[in-house]
Specification:
This protein is α+β, with helices and mostly antiparallel strands. The chain is 36% helix and 23% strand. It folds into two domains: 149 residues, 2-Layer Sandwich (60s Ribosomal Protein L30, Chain: A); 148 residues, Phosphoribosyl-aminoimidazole Synthetase, Chain A, domain 2 (Alpha-Beta Complex). The chain contains nine helices and ten strands. The structure holds adenosine-5'-diphosphate and magnesium ion.
């Protein structure tokens, strides 16, 4: 099967299912023109801003070579939706650029169908519509670009933290890093299923991001480790922070230091003024998602424990 036939059979189907999911969601706006032309045509509603983010996953770097294609498809979209969540954006559209190793067309088609099934599993829960992409051959690489909408001026940015804000993290910290240990040892069957789920099928915190638009001052999603990503917020905001290590909701399967420096959590870390404490507690109940206060933003730069000791460990870095 040549490239064009693949695009027709596989991506047009994914386009159709994702368009259905998006239009079923309240206010979901399908593209004016999707796959099939030289570009997609999209209308941004008046008063809204477009949030654009992209993330690439390369085999052997971001996932082991033997990862099931459905998990790869799920995660390629999940990590991108997580960026929209961190910006407080409502997911709308995405493009998919695939670099695929050459192989017999039957194998390629089977691989692509499973890959798309993984993406569709996430799209059913977090609607977003495929509007285009590109397909080339080479070492397996998946590059997704997502577009989301936010009322003008309401996006959550890294630069908004202020001294006196509370610092929060959603969910649990270190689950993916803990699961990765079992996977790298070749024993994923021994890993607690809830941890493996956070590694292979992380649920991006889209609903949380939307609810934080009018509550948080700054927000980031945790992809490189809590400490590293929190440092990005502090640097962008020109602040420091005190972290109460005892309050961090870390998994028990890892030492705390590994949990707060391990990547791939896709939880949100955000700052909010103390006046939002009750609203955030109520939100945690509504979303059935723990929102834990782990410290506070300070005017002095640097990250320290509540005892004043500097925290220097950083997260995963590619270069
Ligand atoms: P062009 O040569 O004009 O870039 P392509 O042949 O690359 O066109 O793509 C034709 C159409 O198929 C375009 O609308 C493009 O967005 C879409 N497309 C190609 N690859 C993918 C993909 N992996 N996922 C979704 N759409 C794709
Ligand atoms: Mg092209």
């Amino acid at each position: 099967m040549n490239e064009f036939a693949l695009i027709d059979s596989v991506f047009k189907r994914l386009e159709a299912t994702s368009r259905d999911a998006l239009t079923r969601r309240d206010g979901g706006l399908p593209p004016v023109l999707g796959i099939g032309d030289d570009g997609a045509l999209l209308t941004v509603p008046p008063g809204q801003q477009l949030v654009v983010a992209a993330d690439t996953l390369a085999a052997g770097v971001h996932f082991p070579f033997n990862t099931p294609p459905a998990d790869i498809g799920y995660k390629a979209l999940a990590v991108n939706l997580s960026d929209l969540a961190a910006m407080g954006a409502q997911p709308a559209w995405f493009t998919l650029c695939l670099t695929l190793p050459r192989q017999a067309s039957a194998g390629m088609e089977a691989w692509l169908r499973q890959f798309c099934a993984g993406m569709e599993a996430l799209i059913a829960a977090e609607p977003i519509c495929l509007v285009g992409g590109d397909t080339t051959s080479g070492p397996l690489t998946i590059s997704v670009q997502v577009m989301g909408l936010v009322p003008a001026g309401q996006a959550l940015c890294r630069r908004g933290a202020r001294a006196g804000d509370d610092l929060y993290v959603s969910g649990q910290v270190g689950a993916a890093a803990a699961a990765l240990q079992w996977v790298l040892e070749g024993r994923p069957d021994r890993c607690p299923p809830a941890l493996l789920q956070r590694l292979n099928r992380p649920r991006p915190r889209v609903a949380l991001g939307l609810a934080l638009r009018d509550k948080a001052h700054a927000c980031i999603d945790i992809s490189d480790g809590l400490l590293a990503d929190l440092n990005h917020v502090l640097a962008a905001s020109g602040c420091g922070a005190r972290l109460d290590l005892a309050t961090i909701p870390a998994v028990s399967e890892l030492p705390l230091e590994a949990a707060i420096t391990g990547g791939d959590d896709y939880e949100l870390c955000f700052s909010a003024p103390p006046s939002q404490r009750e609203a955030l507690q109520a939100l945690a109940v509504t979303l059935d998602l723990p929102l834990t206060r782990i410290g506070e933003v300070s005017a002095e730069p640097g990250l320290v424990t509540s005892a004043g000791e500097p925290l220097t460990a950083s997260g995963y870095q590619h270069f």
